[in-house]
Specification:
Helices cover about 40% and strands about 15% of the residues. By secondary structure, it is of the alpha+beta class. It is elongated and about 110 Å long.
């Protein structure tokens, strides 16, 4: 057992629950750790592997302070008189991370780990970026508008069908091909997905990217509100090394140096900088647009300057006889989301085009729209009224929709498919694409052992006019990809672990530490220098090869007398592992 773990264990025992929780979280301690007491915790936190995992997370000021403390310890060669300097915020942070003792000196395992690393670079004194020129601001605004619009398109795709992602978190190649066919800039999709994840607009479950309820709400915000929410979430997700004291971020040119011991940091800092560029928070020449100043300073977004450079949103469209629709400008997001629920968008630009089809209108009906709601919405939206072909398409599709009813039989608990059109039932019964459903025909229709929702979506994909009905016979709206509910289990809590450590916290830390030292010595058959209290009040040191511990007694062979001894543990004042190197060499007489 390492002797340097004891002072850390004492510090841990004296720390508050919130301090312990912050420490365990920063050091990535598992909440289900098998630690039995604070000595176990100290041993694990000072394990070289645990220290090596923590050092890359240190900021430049923290790494510099720790390197300075280690250099002082090495210069003093372990002397207690080493000058640790005046306490700083960084040293306080390092103490809270269990890398420095409360007196500012480094634990020996930390000294070894830091000594093997290069010294952090000296900090650079840089002010904030220069204000962007009008041309640079115009380019940044256009890029922000494009990025926000592209992300909205990605979320719309995830809304309809969850996107497959790789283990790295990047979107799968097949999905990117589908996005490329839709005219999306696939080279920035992965960066946009990271921004969406930072803003909690999407979540990944079983390697599928799904829209969250917050993402559903975000889709209906204006372009400026979308941008503001993304920008503030981006700032909140920045690593500690990039955050400034006012809640913003340090000058961008400093970013690449802020985590000097993280080998992956150059790549990550470049990705973070690219994300800021996509949001228009920095210009191509690293200058700063006016709308980025409040966010960089830790304040709420103020997009007034950005608004002047963005195209105005429109709330009207042109409906045409060829079943298409033209928006003369960027359609207001809430209107765009609803319109894309009943029409397929064909082109995305400042003037977008949409097309109505039987499939698109059926999709809207399956999502809860009715013929009346669709026509009322289009009447309010159109600058040219509703063309007769479009009105006929909506009416005919609505009339056909629901011709096939899917429900669960209360008696047999099987899925039943019913329709007044016997020919349609016969067609479904022999349709090879529906063979996995195992549909069987009876007098009342078709039945299947497959679940109701699965049968319904299979019929819908095969373009049958199906609808789900409840026990009362009324149509029900079923979301094919419902947004995931917040997973409370993802919130890490150390309450149980801390409570267990507190229960094992005895009043006599010296006795508890001695027991652990003796147990470790017995396990390793170590030779101990044992200081024993004698009955007359004096003390005596014995060189004992520990062999057993039990019943409050330590057993071992006395190396000096070559006899077996049994010592009461309560009489042992201290014990340390015998180090032969500390014995001075003998010199022969001349």
């Amino acid at each position: 057992m390492s002797t340097h773990a004891r002072p850390l264990a004492v510090w841990l025992a004296a720390a508050s629950d919130s301090q312990l929780s912050d420490l365990f979280g920063a050091r990535s301690v598992r909440p289900d750790s098998s630690w039995s007491d604070f000595f176990d915790a100290a041993e694990e936190l000072l394990d070289p592997a645990s220290i090596d995992r923590m050092l890359p997370r240190l900021t430049l000021p923290e790494a510099t302070a720790l390197h300075r403390a280690v250099a002082g310890a090495l210069e003093a060669d372990g002397s207690d008189t080493a000058d640790v300097g005046d306490p700083t915020d960084e040293s306080a942070a390092l103490i809270a991370l269990a890398l420095l003792r409360p007196d500012g000196t480094a634990y020996p395992p930390v000294v070894e780990a830091v000594a093997a690393r290069d010294a952090p670079p000296p900090p650079l004194a840089l002010s904030a970026a220069a204000p962007a020129t009008q041309i640079a601001e115009a380019h940044a605004a256009e890029r922000a508008f494009t990025s926000v619009a592209a992300l909205a398109d990605v979320l719309m795709m995830a809304r309809d069908t969850p996107l497959t992602v790789l283990t790295s978190g990047n979107v799968a190649a097949g999905e990117k091909r589908r996005m490329a066919d839709a005219g999306l800039p696939v080279d920035i999709v992965d960066a946009l997905v990271v921004l969406a994840a930072d803003a909690a607009l999407v979540t990944t479950t079983n390697r599928q990217l799904r829209l969250t309820p917050l993402g559903e709400s975000w889709l209906r915000l204006t372009a400026l509100e979308r941008w503001a929410q993304l920008s503030e979430a981006y700032r909140a997700a920045l690593p500690r090394g990039l955050r400034s004291a006012d809640g913003g971020w340090v000058p961008v040119p400093l970013w690449e140096h802020q985590h000097p011991w993280d080998p992956s940091w150059p790549e990550r800092s470049a990705a973070l900088r690219e994300s800021a560029r996509l949001l228009g928070l920095i210009a191509d020449d690293s200058s700063e647009p006016a709308w980025a100043v409040p966010i960089r300073g830790g304040r709420r977004a103020e997009p007034a300057a950005l608004r002047q450079l963005l195209p105005a949103e429109v709330d009207r469209i042109f409906l045409q006889n060829d079943l298409s629709a033209i928006a003369p400008g960027p359609l207001a997001p809430a209107l765009d989301v609803r319109l894309r629920g009943i029409a397929a968008r064909e082109s995305a630009a400042q003037a977008s085009s949409y097309r109505f089809t039987v499939e698109s209108v059926s999709h809207g009906l399956a999502s809860g729209e009715t013929a009346s709601s669709i026509l009322d919405f289009l009447e309010q939206l159109s600058l040219t009224g509703i063309p007769q072909p479009l009105e006929y398409l909506v009416a005919q599709t609505a009339q056909r929709h629901g011709l096939v009813r899917v429900f669960t039989d209360d008696v047999t608990e099987r899925t039943r498919v019913a329709s007044d059109d016997a020919t349609l039932l016969d067609a479904m019964g022999v349709d090879q694409s529906l063979r996995p459903l195992g549909l069987s025909r009876d007098a009342a229709g078709l039945t299947s052992r497959v679940g109701r929702d699965t049968v319904y979506w299979a019929l819908t994909d095969a373009r049958y006019p199906a609808t789900i009905v409840g026990a009362d016979g009324r149509p029900q709206v079923v979301d094919r990809n419902p947004p995931p509910s917040p997973d409370a289990s993802k919130a890490v809590s150390y309450d149980a672990l801390i409570a267990r450590l507190r229960r094992q916290q005895g009043p006599d830390a010296d006795a508890a530490w001695l027991d652990r030292e003796l147990e470790a010595a017995v396990r390793t058959k170590a030779v101990l220098v044992v200081e024993v209290a004698m009955p007359d009040g004096s003390t005596r040191e014995l060189l004992l090869e520990a062999s057993g511990l039990g019943g409050g007694r330590l057993r071992g062979r006395d190396r000096a007398a070559d006899v077996e001894r049994t010592l009461p543990v309560k009489s042992i004042r201290s014990a340390r592992v015998f180090d032969p190197s500390l014995i001075p060499p003998t010199t022969s007489s001349p």
